[in-house]
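Continuing the series of single-chain predictions for the mutant panel. This is the parent chain; the variants come on the following pages.
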Amino acid sequence: MQVAIYFFICVDLSLALFEEPALFPLPFLATSIAEVLCLTAFFGRLVHFAKVTPQMVFWKDTKNICIMVTIVLTLIDLIIYGSLEAVNIHSIRWSRALRPVFLINFPESRQIRRTFRSIRNTLPDILYVFLLFMFSVLIFSLMALKLFGVRSLKTVEGLPYFTDILEIAFELYVLVTTANSPDVMMPAYNFSRWYSLYFITYIIINTYIFMSVFLAVVYNNYRKHLKNEILKLAYLKRRKMIEAFNILKVKVGTEFVVTEAQWKRLAKIVMPHISSPHLELLLRISDEGQKGHVDKMNFLRLADLLNIQVVAINIKRHPLEDWMPRVYQSSASLLVQRMVRHRIFVWVYDVIILVNAIFIALDEKKPFISNAEWLFLSLYIIEILLKLYTYEPRAYFGRKQFWNWFDTLIIIAALVATVANATIQSGNYNSQQILDIVLILRILRLLRIIVSIQRFRLIVTTLINIGPTILTFGGLVLVVYYVFAIIGMEAFQGKVWFFDPNFTTPEAQVCGNPALTGSAFARDHYCKNNFNDLASSFIVLMELTVVNQWHVLAGGFALVTHQAAKLYFISFHIVVVILIVNIFIAFILEAFFVAYSLEKSEVETAIEKKIQELGVGVQEEEMQDGKLIDNMDAKDSGFSGDDGDNKRKALKGLYFRIASKKYRTVDALLQQMFESEITPEDEGPSLDEILNLSPSDIYPKNPSFGNSA
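Parent structure:
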């Protein structure tokens, strides 16, 4: 059902590519039939959801109401638009801007809704800052009108300088983004050096102070509401674990406990595929005294214990050790293995990569440089062969050994492309495409340096961790871009046209619209930046997000329509650049703070401690720099034996370790960070109080230095 819904959502959103103004035009009948099919699928999903949801819950859910209202409005718009088209009257398809509602409101898109909630929760606080900011812009606009409006100054284009209050406000708003600096200042600065103080003061107050305050407010509110959501989850989890304990408890002596048999049954029901060694390990942590039962405090940790990934590792022999043991265990072979495992081996290849980078930057048409490329390629191949000789191949190419796979694939691809390029050139035929591929693969090899430097790896793995959430923000940006693109196409389609550079007609020089004569838009040849189809609209919106020269784009479209069109571009800047980009920055900051500073949880430490006590631990340090599991493979087997020697005999090469921290998600890290603030004895507030928990309940009502700390 999820795949089907996402398929129909993609089809529904992509219809804008085929509707007027279209990138790939299709008849209105074809697109309308496709849209009706999508609406039918959405309605069917809603009916399906209603069948498995209590009636009161279904009708109280705002998401369901939004979907139903959007379906009805879309059908009404389709009927009206189709009827008018039948009598050759062109109208606006306003319901197309509502299509992202389906992406946001289906249960499968809870992460995107969570981001929208962050924006909604941030709006009240940011509104006051924004009003103060706009008041500052207005004050400076009035000052500019009085200072410069009476001095008959002219712009570079020969137009009056700062004589219209609305034009001044727009130019000063643009100056906050620095897109028109220093151009907007130059007429006043040329007249008098002292007028530069006005612009310097404005930039300090509005660009540096107010924009920083926006980020601070967004970050503070984002973290506050995120903490509120996670505390709700943490308290709910605590209450449910207490309820489970109360159902299963039996009295032993003076305390209530859960028997070992019941504890094992529960763990098996919750995680049917948990291995026997893993289950035994968790039981030994929960029942430290081996009393045959688990007390309340240890029972409450069960959810956290099951949530930590513990890897059982079976040490395996290298295939060459089985095939030719005498050769593989010879002194020369062991020397080679020690060399490959040594840190100096990594350093040597780091130097080789850096030297290779210098050679890549040089002119490869010289024979010495081109021959050196073969030498570097040979050295990289030797490196991989030596590693495969030293480390067990299946472990080296394990499921989570991303950098080993990356390294090998890049080298193999570079070898194939280099051989292909040499073969083609020897036949007096030069393929630029093959040459481009070879050059790109050579440069990509330089990324191997990331593997060797610990800090680089930490940054890259953090970026990999936050990847799924970045995709959530991508969905948010897609929604906003889509809505603004639809509005932009309805407002500006056909106002600006792109002509081939070979066209020298007067019409081509002004982008097909005489209103652009002499404008910066036409002078800079921005004709291809238009809203004539969805793809072009997205590119224009991307350029507006970058903000450089966005005032030129806004000015151009204002000339071909009306000066009020600038409000469209200002609205986009406020929503995307000030709000969404700042929330994205807030998330990145939080993710990096967590990844850099978060210590291991108390539960995780307990597991590691027990692993070491049992004598079956593998240190994380042994996993670094390609040595990772050395010759190991995950495997399930029995866990028995009590004393050290018996354990070793029973385990037969079976070891345990906590899965590497780099595979944790950011959400899990944030939850761990906030949960650590709840003491084990704290059973939390009542269920109603938890569900009604607000961010203001987390922080002191009258904050002072003492209670805030």
